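Hey L., structure's done. Input below.
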Amino acid sequence: MSEFDFLSGIDAVPPTPILIAPAPVLRQVTRDVRAEDMAFLREQLPGMFSAMYKAPGIGLAAPQVGLDMRFALVDVAEEDATREPMVLINPEIVTDSEQMAVREEGCLSLPNQYAEVIRPESIRVRYRDLAGEIIERDADGLLATCIQHEMDHLEGILFVDHLSTLKRNMIMRRLAKEQKLRRR
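Output:
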């Protein structure tokens, strides 16, 4: 039995609401997940995976659902492919490449907003999995970008923080306008 068996019925799970910028918790640095947090963390996963997949998205960090904990979900598998979920608990980047890559990024907390972001092309990330095992994994391409993006959330950083002030302000104004129109 897999620790991700709950994913087989994920379509029936109500998605956890995703916070939209400028929600203050999105700017806070998270605290490490402790052993006593694991039961709570496991309870949150079905709703978080449901929210991520229904959005649709490829990553979701705890602060995006209002949790002050250092963990994130990632699944960069194509929508029609077999899911490849990862839960990264207390992740840290061990090494990153000098070679940089430009990739268009978006964020579930900044819906419909996209921009090109420059990040290291490849990384080695160390994290704990749901069994508490320490994992080190090399990632490049989309997976490396996604992991770095989600880890930024754990530090209170949004992808727009990697842009020029002008571009960041344009995106944030556009987001505010769209959110205002949505509330009407």
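Residues 33 and 40 are 10 Å apart (CA to CA). The first helix runs from residue 38 to 54.

-- N.
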